[in-house]
Each structure stands twice: as structure tokens, then as C-alpha cells.
Amino acid sequence: xxxxxxxxxxxxxxxxxxxxxxxxxxxxxxxxxxxxxxxxxxxxxxxxxxxxxxxxxxxxxxxxxxx
Length: 67
What we know:
Elements: H1 10-36, H2 42-52
């Protein structure tokens, strides 16, 4: 095991920090969105299905998560 050193210029360090902060903020916003999304009861779900019938097959928005 030697003395392995990695040399980074200030701009490289700045980009790494910016990327890390962006990822952290994105993760935290996702957690907040999950906490604020209300759960519905079975009765409410039945009312929704009765009122709106079958959902269309068109995708309006989708998001994939790595867990």
C-alpha cells in the first residue's frame, strides 16, 4: 500500500460538490413528496373507480426509481 494521491483542480472539486448537493436535494424532495402524498381508504378508491371508470392507457408522466 503506497501513498496514492489524487490531484483535483478547484473546478473539479466544485463540480463534484455541486453534483453531490443536487443528488442530496433531489433525494430529500422525493422523501418529502412521499410523506405529503395522502393515502386513501378502500372506500375512497371504490368511489374513484366508480366516478372515473377505467383509466386510459396513455402515460401522462412516469418516474423510475432505483431502490
